[in-house]
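Reopening this one. Same input as before:
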Amino acid sequence: MKITDLLKPQSILLNADPVTKADAIYTLGELMDKGGYLTDKAEYLKAVFAREESGSTGLGDGIATPHAKSAGVKEPGLAAMVVPNGVDFEALDGQPSRLFFMIAAPEGAADTHVEVLSKLATMVIDPDFKEALIQAATVDRFLELITAKEEGNFDPSVEGYIKPAEDQKATSITDAIEAKATEAIEKVAPKISVDNPHYDVLAVTGCPTGIAHTYMAAESLERKAKEMGVSLKVEKNGASGVKDALTAEEIAHAKCIIVASDRQVEMARFDGKPMIQTKVANGINKAEEL
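Same output, byte for byte:
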């Protein structure tokens, strides 16, 4: 399943101008309904507003991802909106939000859509990709950029941001070779070095619905750890359950624990360890400080 399987043209609005946060949510709810994803728009929006009460999904850097699981959702779906002048969405950095992706998930949904949505969540962290979407002149262009990014063909260094067809073919062959090589290496090589056989830092991420923020926070922490040369493992407390669960041995050898979660996490296992505990959104926006 691809992101564009969940995002229909009729659920995308460019050049929107909502005045308030509530206006933005209602507009996105209408777009979601136009996509045929809802059985009860009012019920779904009630869940979205409830989610906002636990913490704004205005992530900062102009991005917002309002989302909810609800009995009013018929099937997993996305709606997107660009607000060129921005709207106050109570973002953590205090800046207006310009790019919106609303996520709808039915109660008791299977895992497939969660994987797709987590991929979207990590994609929009890329500032070049975010700005390209905001500048998209048409809905078709908006969807074209998403497809290119998902398939590894988005390149801000080329005109139009999308690699020429001949380069895409060469890249796909190279990627396939690299993927096979990586797969072979991972079968015999440990995730961390022989000199440092344990993770320096362990983290847990999770949000109330376990969809977007869970994976965005994990991606942000992993990027920062890579930049700093720190070995890190992240346990994702997502909608489909716990993934990459931390083991007792890993916890015993870790130097520090980061818990960036708005949902309940088993904390007793970390007793005696230096710990940073914060909201999941801080894991997205303040990874360097953490």
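So the earlier flakiness isn't reproducible anymore. For the record, The chain has three domains: 3-149, 151-189, 201-285.
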